[in-house]
């Protein structure tokens, strides 16, 4: 890619993204004219959105009538509303003696039945409405084919306790957050494999959420992307934690719009409610920050995480790339990955694969479909051996 360059000023100033001008005087528009839409994009034609699908989800949430036994469960993580535990098995019968048979995952799932289950329990008394809303949005998302390729499968809402619990298949390889934190110990070739593999999976996953299910996730970050082991050395990355998610063109719940400052789009910190409400474009930006973090090996705003005011002001600037490249370790790692990328046949700057999602103005960002096409085109230019090695299911 010739139009996008990451430049370092001679005086040591911050990195900036610039567009070169072609010989006829017009700006390079490569990112705005991607190649043809990949075959998976036709999913939106097969499953056109209807408000009725969300209404149906409200009445079709699977109910599991049992009380989770968490006495020997392993704590996997916790958030504002919940704690998540891993349990080895579900009870075979409900509290009333009826056989307990959680609903099956979508029929085209490529994942076997789990050996472990994840139980998400409420950690606050006011979480009931949040859990019910999450169960509804997950039921809506799972009504579409291929959902289990992109979203951790939801099995049902536990009704056997006073406080609600959600049951999921357990992702056995941790989160993207733990992976990127430990990625500095991996060979650079493995880091590049992981980045390209995860880049394709998550951009396709976001395309599925946006274009097929009309769902806005509203809290994309490494901690909300779960990993499952596969027969290859590369894990499967899928979206999780839909507690703030909602269907576009509907009124968000009162708890929607939350998120993590360092992964928010600049407009989400506006006092204007129309701008601060999550959109498809803010999801794009959050995924861009997430993938930039994987490239760098840490949060682009690492130096500001202990200062809330400075962090918010930096996010508002909409220049995450500059902040990231001010970290010497991040700059060195990206330079090394860039060299390896080019040795493998990659063209242009590897940062360009996320830069299209990190434009400050939301109307300037690529949508999920355009981003998928851009990534596909870039990966296709690698040698055949390298592409097969990624293990991408496209």
Explained architecture:
By secondary structure, the chain is an alpha+beta fold. Residues 1-52, 104-113 and 387-394 have low confidence and may be disordered. Helices cover 36% and strands 12% of the residues. The radius of gyration is 21 Å and the shape is globular. It folds into 2 domains: 51-94 and 112-169, 2-Layer Sandwich (Phosphorylase Kinase, domain 1); 174-390, Transferase(Phosphotransferase) domain 1 (Transferase(Phosphotransferase), domain 1), CATH 1.10.510.10. It contains 14 helices and 12 strands. Strands 3-7-8-6-5-4 form a 6-stranded mixed sheet, covered by helices on one side.
Produce a short descriptive summary:
Helix content is 36%, strand content 12%. It is built from 14 helices and 12 strands. Pfam families: Pkinase.
Mean pLDDT: 80
CATH class category name of the largest domain:
Mainly Alpha
Radius of gyration: 21 Å
- What order do the strands of the largest sheet run in, or round the barrel if closed? 3-7-8-6-5-4
Q: In CATH terms, what is the architecture of the largest domain?
A: Orthogonal Bundle
Main sheet makeup: 6 strands, mixed
Which bin fits the share of residues in helices?
25-40%
CATH topology of the largest domain: Transferase(Phosphotransferase), domain 1
In whole angstroms, the N-to-C terminal distance is 22 Å
Assembly status: single chain
- Briefly note the structural class of the backbone: alpha+beta
Q: How many independent structural domains?
A: 2
Q: What is the strand tally? A: 12
């Amino acid at each position: 890619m010739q139009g996008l360059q990451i430049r370092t000023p001679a005086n040591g100033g911050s990195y900036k993204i610039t567009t070169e001008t072609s010989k006829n005087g017009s700006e390079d528009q490569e990112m705005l004219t991607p190649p043809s839409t990949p075959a998976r994009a036709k999913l939106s034609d097969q499953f056109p959105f209807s408000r009725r699908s969300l209404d149906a989800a409200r009445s079709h949430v699977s109910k599991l009538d049992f009380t989770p036994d968490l006495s020997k469960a392993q704590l996997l993580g916790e958030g504002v509303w919940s704690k998540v535990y891993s349990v080895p098995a579900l009870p075979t019968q409900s509290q009333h003696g009826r056989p307990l048979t959680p609903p099956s995952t979508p029929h085209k799932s490529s994942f076997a039945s789990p050996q472990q289950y994840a139980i998400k329990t409420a950690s606050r008394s006011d979480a009931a409405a949040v859990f019910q809303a999450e169960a509804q949005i997950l039921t809506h998302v799972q009504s579409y084919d291929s959902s289990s390729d992109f979203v951790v499968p939801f099995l049902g809402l536990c009704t056997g306790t006073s406080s609600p619990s959600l049951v999921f298949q357990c992702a056995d390889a941790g989160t993207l957050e733990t992976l990127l934190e430990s990625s500095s110990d991996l060979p650079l070739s493995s880091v590049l494999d992981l980045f390209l593999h995860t880049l394709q999976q998550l951009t396709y996953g976001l395309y599925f959420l946006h274009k097929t299910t009309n769902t806005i996730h509203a809290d994309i970050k490494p901690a909300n992307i779960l990993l499952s082991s596969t027969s290859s050395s590369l894990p499967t990355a899928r979206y999780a934690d839909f507690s703030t998610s909602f269907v576009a063109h509907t009124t968000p719940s009162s708890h929607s719009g939350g998120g993590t400052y360092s992964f928010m789009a600049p407009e989400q910190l506006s006092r204007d409610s129309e701008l601060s409400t999550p959109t498809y474009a803010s999801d794009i930006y959050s995924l861009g920050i997430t993938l930039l973090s994987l490239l760098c090996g840490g949060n682009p705003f690492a130096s500001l995480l202990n200062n809330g005011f400075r962090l918010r002001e930096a996010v508002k600037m909409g220049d995450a790339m500059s902040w990231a490249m001010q970290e010497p370790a991040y700059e060195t790692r990206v330079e090394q990955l860039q060299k390896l990328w080019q040795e493998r046949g990659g063209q242009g700057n590897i940062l360009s694969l996320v830069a299209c999602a990190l434009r400050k103005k939301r109307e300037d960002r690529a949508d999920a479909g355009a981003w998928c096409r851009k990534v596909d085109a870039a990966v296709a230019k690698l040698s055949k051996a390298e592409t097969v090695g990624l293990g991408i299911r496209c």
